[in-house]
Write a structure and sequence with these properties.
Number of strands: 32
Bound molecules: alpha-D-galactopyranose
CATH superfamily of the largest domain: Aldolase class I
Oligomer: single chain
Number of domains: 3
Distance between the termini: 44 Å
Largest sheet: 8 strands, parallel
Shape: globular
């Protein structure tokens, strides 16, 4: 097997891999070679994206990190929590109050129990300095009707220890071993403490401990931290041990389930889009970070937004893309930059990002509170369908995003986004919305809370610099008797997306490094995922097209892939026109398209090659709960063909 193909197998069998993964990095590397080979394309009849925990809609709440960094205190956290309740934000869905890095003092060496810094959390001193508990803190939050979140790391040490400068407050104290506050080697003990004993409901698990403590790190060389051979090399996917990272996160998921018999928890993965987490994060936890940290700057917003915006098919109820917490209130999103602050909120809502406020709410102006409290926009984000917005128009300057909301296919949300620092005109067409061009389209402005004059065909809008207009639209769908799969990304899971060699996405906005300025040679985005499954686009972002025939709707994916599709009782038939996409670089492979219902073959295409006209597939879905769409090439290669499920739809 070629190395690339071996990697394909590795990706395809991660659950099996995770079992029995040793906890040391060295042995985890050794495990990679012994990866069992399974048939990833076999129809299973099961939805495999994560559905444990409680994240049927994107979690909402508040986190200490963007507000206070490691300088958090119990009083500061509770101040914002109180304002969330008193202002009515809690009633609108902001529920999780999360403490991030900085809460810990040390790990007690007699029994490995984590100790809280009682100077920061006075209520934790339940039995003097040595007997600490965050239970009084979570009790307070629970009595307020809120939920409580905590933070840890995959490795032995956390991000503040890896990257904090000499003046970082509240770094863990004591000996090298006492300062090992991360989960590594303590997964069951810590998860049980945080959830069973202390009563937390949410955990974010960072990855700095498995990234920044290699033998060549200054901190390790100075003897202040123990070496842990890195599992993640942010610059090199080939030097990253994908199965080991996934294995550690999977062990945590297992412990979370065991420590939370009522299932009331949220598991937030923070691997920043590294380790090909795009492909598997959705199978392991409720949230998965798609990029490095957001900063309060416009260009960083573009970077982070881009890392999630083309990943609609990877987000579903229970498993969401996370482009990072809100930075509204700070820097270029502060009370003097309300246009930018509103854009940030509208965009995060449209792509089903978690809405976690990162601001000291005791300082928030009424205008900022109004942004957080916009009920119509919150409702888009919290829609039960869980359909992340799909890009209907894409450019470096302006974008149009469309989001399916509610059960009525005549209604959709639409956002017009001006990424630039100049005013721009945007033409929105009925076609972008997949509405008939000869029927009126109505728009309701969700910022102004006002109706616009209806239009037919198309309408022109002027956007101020950095402005996002956001509307609920209604019109007459082109497809009258069902819905396109690409409009229902919350019900489509690329269980195997065919990516053999994970690559960084070249279309993610490249900003000047927020941390290094222009030192070095500049960062290309390390976020892997280029070439994954796309709604209404080819895997590489082009128009869907088979033998010259363009498709406005459809799923673009690589060969040797399997999509799972949740079916509702009213869906009676599946239809699509399939073939090798004209964008393919592999023009020799023959690909067979098969449709399964609850694990049984319903219909199959001929083997189809580049240039062959699309073949129509139609399958009766009577009684079927789960459809699987499998595209198989007879000769799998490291450069799989791009294929198209054109006009794929569930019909009544
Ligand atoms: C990483 C994470 C951030 C935050 C910090 C804490 O950088 O990505 O969200 O948790 O660590 O140190």
């Amino acid at each position: 097997m070629t190395p690339a193909l071996r990697r394909l197998r590795r990706h395809a069998a991660p659950v099996a891999l995770a079992v029995g993964l040793a906890l040391t990095a060295a042995s985890a590397h050794a495990e990679t070679a012994a990866t069992p080979v399974v048939a990833p394309l076999a129809a299973t009849g099961k939805w495999s994206a994560y559905s444990e925990g409680r994240a049927a809609t994107p979690p909402m709440g508040w986190s200490s990190w963007n507000a206070f960094g490691t300088d958090l205190t119990e009083a500061r956290v509770l101040d914002s929590a109180r304002i969330i309740v008193d202002s009515g934000l809690a009633a609108k869905g902001y529920r999780y109050i999360n403490i991030d890095d900085g809460w810990w003092l040390k790990r007690r060496q007699s029994d490995g129990r984590m100790q809280v810094r009682i100077q920061l959390f006075p209520s934790a001193a339940v039995g003097g300095g040595e007997e600490t508990s965050l239970r009084p803190f979570t009790d307070r939050l629970h009595k307020m009707g809120l939920k409580a979140g905590i933070y840890s790391d995959l490795g032995r040490n956390a991000c503040s220890q890896a990257y904090g400068g000499p003046n970082t407050p509240n770094l863990p104290e004591g000996t090298v071993l006492e300062r090992e506050v991360g989960l590594y080697g303590h997964i069951e003990q810590d998860i049980s403490l945080y959830f069973k004993d202390w009563g937390f409901d949410f955990i974010k698990v960072d990855g700095c401990g498995v990234r920044a403590f290699g033998a060549d790190s200054e901190r390790v060389k100075a003897g202040t931290y123990r070496e842990l051979p890195p599992l993640i090399d942010f610059q090199s996917i080939s030097r990253t041990n994908i199965p080991a990272v996934r294995g550690l996160y999977t062990q945590i998921a297992t412990s979370l389930k065991a420590s939370n018999p009522d299932g009331d928890y949220v598991f937030s993965l923070c691997a920043w889009g590294s380790a090909d987490v795009r492909a598997w994060g959705k199978d392991v936890g409720n949230l998965s970070r798609t990029s490095d940290d957001l900063t309060p700057s416009w260009s960083r917003l573009l970077t982070n937004f881009d890392s999630a915006a083309t990943r609609a098919l990877y987000a579903h109820p229970g498993s969401w893309n996370d482009p990072d917490m809100l930075f509204i209130g700070h820097g270029e999103f502060d009370a003097k930059h309300l246009v930018e602050a509103r854009s940030h909120f509208a965009l995060w809502a449209m792509i089903n990002a978690p809405l976690l406020i990162g601001y000291d709410l005791s300082q928030a102006s009424p205008e900022l509170m109004q942004i957080f409290g916009n009920e119509a926009i919150i409702a888009l984000n919290q829609d039960a369908g869980g359909h992340q917005a799909v890009l209907a128009y894409d450019s470096d300057d302006v974008q149009i995003l469309i989001k399916t909301v509610g059960a009525d296919p005549t209604r959709k949300a639409v956002a017009l986004f001006n990424r630039t620092a100049e005013g721009k005109d945007i033409i929105l067409t009925a076609e972008h919305l997949k509405y008939l061009a000869n029927q009126p389209v109505k728009l309701h402005d969700l910022w102004a809370q006002a109706d616009q004059a209806p239009f037919t065909g198309e309408a022109k809008f002027h956007l101020d610099p950095h402005q996002t207009l956001i509307f609920m639209a209604s019109g007459t769908p082109v497809l009258s008797n069902g819905q396109y799969l690409s409009d229902l990304p919350g019900r489509v899971n690329p269980a195997v997306d065919g990516v053999v060699v994970p690559q960084a996405d070249p279309f993610i906005y490249r900003m000047k490094s927020p941390w290094n300025g222009t030192r070095g040679r500049g960062d290309i985005p390390a976020y892997t995922g280029w070439g994954g499954a796309q709604a209404d686009a080819s895997p590489h972002g082009r128009q869907l097209q088979i033998a010259g025939k363009a498709f406005r709707s459809g799923i673009g994916i690589l060969a040797n892939s399997r999509l799972e599709v949740r079916v509702q009782p009213s869906d009676r038939r599946f239809e699509a026109r399939v073939g090798v996409d004209d964008s393919t670089l592999n023009t020799t492979e023959a690909v067979t398209f098969a449709v399964y219902g609850d694990g049984k073959l319903l219909v199959k295409s001929q083997p189809l090659r580049f240039g062959q006209t699309p073949q129509a597939l139609s399958a009766d879905l009577n009684g079927v709960r789960l459809v699987e769409l499998v595209a198989t090439s007879a000769s799998p290669s490291a450069n799989p063909a791009a294929v198209t499920w054109g006009d794929a739809a569930l019909l009544k």
